[in-house]
Amino acid sequence: MKPRLNVVPRQVEFGDTVPAALGSSGGALPDVAWEPPLPGQRRALGSWNEYMALASRVVGRFHGHFALRHFDYEHPVRLQPGTPRRLKRAYVTPVAYTEWGAADAPVLLCCGGVANVAMRFHYLASDLADRWRVVCMDWLGRGRSGWLAAEEDYSLATYAEQLRQMIRHLAGEPGPGAAGGPAGPAGRARRGVGGGRGVTVLGSSMGGSAAIELIAREPKLVERLILNDVGPHIPARRRRRRAEAIARHYVFRDPAELLRRVGASNKNDGPVSDDIRFNLSFHQTRWSDEESGRVYRHDVRAMQAYRRGSRQSVVQWAEWQHVRCPVLLIHGMQSDALLPPTLERMRRGKAVTVMHVPDTGHTPLLADRNQIGFIRQWLAGEIPAGEEWSVLHAPARDPYPGSPIPFAPASALR
Q1: pLDDT tens, 106-135?
Q2: What pairing do the DSSP bridges indicate for beta strands 91-100 and 133-137?
Q3: Half-sphere exposure of residue 241, counting CA atoms within 13 Å on the CB side?
Q4: Are the CB atoms for 109 and 51 separated by under 8 Å?
Q5: pTM for this entry
Q6: What is the separation of C-alpha 173 from the centre of its chain, rounded to a whole number of angstroms?
Q7: Element (H, E) at 96
Q8: Which terminal Cβ of the chain has fewer Cβ within 10 Å, N or C?
Q9: Which tens digit of pLDDT belongs to each residue from 84-101?
Q10: Euclidean distance between the first and final Cα of the chain, in Å?
């Protein structure tokens, strides 16, 4: 019998949807093509000059609030399955990450999904940087991180290893290189995990799968875990549909084409504003002189590797048994990746705290101030383990709240 989710229609006067009981027999399967209406006129951009003018405003909101850093990831021989034995050797490639907040604050490490970039978490990091050291990482082959030598090197085991090395780097342990900060004890202390506390990992989709994989192997590395709409089971049907959309090389010749594509691929983001979506589309793409348009800022081989693996469901129930740290599970109520039976099984024998996000599908963007407010409370230990609730949508943010500069400098727009 197919799992079903009963959804109560949106109540406009309250600005929210009232969630029905999970796993009820009534209702229909989530409509993955549905998108809630958003008040206001969609922006029409006729040229790349207009696009960059808007980018300077949106990106300028965060300019100077974070540092862009790198560390050297060493890719081990054991994770090079397709490389001939005579060519196998460990090699180094840079991993990019943004860093917000005080160096001695407790660490929140954010990892996105298969096609995400670190800049996706700008709104979350900006809101939490007053009390936490928020680190947002680009996966290998995405964003500003380096690429791997072979398509077969991109795997869930590789991402778990990248996450492990990232945490070790934040703890101040020396790696194969010194990128991202000064060398020596002083530099390592500046980067070290604040006050000897452990790391809290926030993983969206693939980021959550990598975190579960890592915790099963080295549970002491992660003190707390936030899973953004992901569990130990992701259906193959959902993975194949996603893979078909991303495992291609796209060239966007004009802004309208880019914004249409991003809008279509993010239909389940919920009622987020144009500015939040624009921030995502801008950082996920870059200008290509060779293509005379904007292209995705990732290695298409990483997407093709995901397509190859999408023939099978993700099944991590054995690894999930080893996850004993506190867990906050964020559930998009229109999600086709985190289904009610998975959610119910995750809570058996574990005090998993659950936050349901109405009107939203797979991996909420976490730019909503109410969602971030609850994450803040959970991080501060103000929400008892095992609690379950749904969150109202916050009013739209001011697009440029008191921005000290009307336009970001060219260095911030690369």
Answers
A1: 999 999 999 999 999 999 999 999 999 999
A2: antiparallel
A3: 11
A4: no
A5: 0.85
A6: 25
A7: strand 91-100
A8: N
A9: 999 999 999 999 999 999
A10: 50
